[in-house]
Design a protein that fits this description.
Elements: H1 3-25, E1 43-45, E2 49-50, H2 60-66, E3 70-78, E4 84-93, E5 107-114, E6 121-128, E7 134-139, E8 142-145, E9 149-150, E10 156-164, E11 167-172
Antiparallel strand pairs: 1-2, 3-4, 4-5, 5-8, 5-9, 6-7, 6-10, 10-11
Amino acid sequence: MTTFRRLLTILLVAGLTASAVAASTAPAGAAPGALSTDPPCEWADWGTSSACDGIHPWGVAHRAECGTGGFVDTVEIRASSLTVLAYVDLVYERGPRTTYPNGNCRTAWAELTVVNDNVSYCRAEIRRNSDGQKYEVYGAPGHQQTAVVHDAGVTSYAWGICFYQGSYFTARTINY
């Protein structure tokens, strides 16, 4: 798959995903598309818990408060030098928050793009190194994102595994 086609697929699926989760990320009783009233992305217990943990990265609340992120590292899950099964991306957002003063949103998440139709199982996760907090996503051919982890002052990584023709294949991103 060419880089252009992969990017186009990611943008199309991300747009559809954002539409599908918009209503579920608005505060209870609020109209779809309303900004979150959740507390800011800061540590409730430093390095181990934040109100931003578990928010979907393409939900309306996260996009309005944090932005849409930027790719930090992409790895390929390969069965061989010629057979790519999936891509695992580590995505990080440190953009300014617009809902709360004096803060930046520092969240990370994993994106899984399964590109081989013969893969019977794929999974990706984002893991915060300070406490091991993780969120997973399972994928069939297509594109999915995990929930986010807050990681101001700590690091996280994305990891993926696919089952293909009787064997497991893995790949891991850098810590960021």
